[in-house]
Amino acid sequence: MTSAAASAPDVVDEPGRRLSSDERRAQIIRAALTIFGARGYEGATTDEVARAAGVSQPYVVRLFGSKENLFLATIGFALDQLLSAFRVALAASDDGGERPVGKRIGEAYVDLIEVHGLHQTLAHAYLLGSNPAIGAAARQGFVRVWRFFRDEMGLDAEEARTFLAEGMLISTMIGLRIVDDYGSDPQITELFRACFPNKLPHVLEVLPRNEHRL
Amino acid sequence: MTSAAASAPDVVDEPGRRLSSDERRAQIIRAALTIFGARGYEGATTDEVARAAGVSQPYVVRLFGSKENLFLATIGFALDQLLSAFRVALAASDDGGERPVGKRIGEAYVDLIEVHGLHQTLAHAYLLGSNPAIGAAARQGFVRVWRFFRDEMGLDAEEARTFLAEGMLISTMIGLRIVDDYGSDPQITELFRACFPNKLPHVLEVLPRNEHRL
DNA sequence: GACTGTAGTAATCGTATGATTACAAAGTCA
DNA sequence: TGACTTTGTAATCATACGATTACTACAGTC
């Protein structure tokens, strides 16, 4: 609850009320993050997104023009969330510097699992380098994160690489849903403990388990 | 050319010759690796795979039963290739131990870009944790790699985590097609140099560039 | 209270795609 | 040679999905 991620004021959706197109777009992007995260760009359907957002499928298409545009908007939102969470963590380290900066940023990254689908959607985007539009956006997004580490955090290239690597591992573990078999499969349990050395209880609490699949 | 990856005897496809179903399956899996790597599980079509393998689309489906089975077979193959390449590197370190084991394994991993689509396909699989069949297979596969690091290489949990993390970063960079903008975009150039500190020339040589998109 | 713009849906269309069926050609072996 | 198996394709099907069109309802304003 202390993270910046949880502070976003979700759009209230009283049944019957009409939202402005911008409010609706924001709401749809939230839903899209979940769906794209679970099924990937091609695997997700605009209908699933629409259902999750509580609107009709044609309206999703009309508000964004195309599924591709929706995806681009979604990864844009994810990156904004990511970087602003990082900036909050960085600022917090600057004033009351009890904990090292790296720790704080790392925790902020893990905390972003509360924004459902964010890590998975970005990871999917990073794998679509072959797609002309999405690939270009993904590369630019990745570079934005790199620049944050180098310029705003002041890391050298080696340190920044290590940060990125740890981040990619965390995203992978989340996408794999390792948490589903935690406790039941001893191999998985060991793997999971090793990969989330400190944040274990928090991750277990926040990440949805078995049955509940989105 | 020194890697184990390049030593696989590709199936020769003289036009007119009929292959055994096992030979054909192997050939199709090779093609599937490329296609799944570039487009993902949902994004790839059995028709694309068939075309790349030089057979008809129905035949692909018949030889594997379903697209899902084809994907499972493909990631099984990818994991076998990965682990056998690791074992070769490990064995080579054991006898003539000039170079440290970690370096060798890392190089073997990067060298696997010669098996087109391997890294990307595995990365896609790792993101499909929500899919019942594929998710389970992906988790088991990931655990196999983990067990290699722990049991066969003898790493402790911390070291193994670092290895995995570096691997995930490399896979991400490949999936992003960072190479495409290497040289033209200065940001990308710096990022790329930092992430492939040693293997740079080799990677640049082996990874396909711009136009050539698979 | 008609007029206009915006939010939203129902119905539908075209197409891509995984799968199935039916059939042809090649190989094997008595 | 003839029966039988195995490799392989052409034609086709059913369906899912992104997109389009045509329409409705609500809100503000003059």
From TrEMBL, chains A, B:
<feature type="domain" description="HTH tetR-type">
    <location>
        <begin position="22"/>
        <end position="82"/>
    </location>
</feature>
<feature type="DNA-binding region" description="H-T-H motif">
    <location>
        <begin position="45"/>
        <end position="64"/>
    </location>
</feature>
<dbReference type="Pfam" id="PF00440">
    <property type="entry name" value="TetR_N"/>
</dbReference>
<keyword id="KW-0805">Transcription regulation</keyword>
<protein>
    <recommendedName>
        <fullName>HTH tetR-type domain-containing protein</fullName>
    </recommendedName>
</protein>
<dbReference type="InterPro" id="IPR001647">
    <property type="entry name" value="HTH_TetR"/>
</dbReference>
<keyword id="KW-0804">Transcription</keyword>
<dbReference type="InterPro" id="IPR009057">
    <property type="entry name" value="Homeodomain-like_sf"/>
</dbReference>
<keyword id="KW-0238">DNA-binding</keyword>
<dbReference type="InterPro" id="IPR050109">
    <property type="entry name" value="HTH-type_TetR-like_transc_reg"/>
</dbReference>
